[in-house]
Amino acid sequence: MQRQSYFRTDSTTNGFTLLEVLITVILIGILFAIAAPNWVAFINQQRVGSARSQVAQAIRTAQSQAQQTKVNRAVVFDNNNGQPRYAIVAATNNSVDIAQITNWQRLGDGSIRLWGDQGTDRNIATLIFDGYGAVVASPVPYEITIGAAIGVNPRRCVSVETLLGATAEDSDAACSAAP
What we know:
By secondary structure, this protein is of the alpha+beta class. Helices cover 29% and strands 23% of the residues.
């Protein structure tokens, strides 16, 4: 009687050939190359949209704090060497000393920028609300435009349209700030 083996002794093997694996890897690479630019654009739109919401919320918060405390409040936007930030501070005599601000908040996640020269030494982006929540000492309409750190689009903006502080949000070509 012959002993039965638990191992197969025939010469067939299971698995994939090298050619099958190469074709699969090439197809996956082609699909990734097609999808990657769209994915990057989608992520940029989400980041810029999130930062626009943050800007709108900062403006609403400054206006609300001014109404609650009956003290002029300013929201200040600063480019900070490519790392945008903002702060909400008291605005005595309708002015703000940027060197004295200590409560800066980061704007976005570091992959966005303030558009044009907003928030630079040439153009300090400051919006001041009086104790009634109305805009003072700032031109109306007042607009903050943000965009992706690299490239022209997507761009998103928040503008204060009236002296009463009504805000509007817009995107891309509707935003007026020049690059």
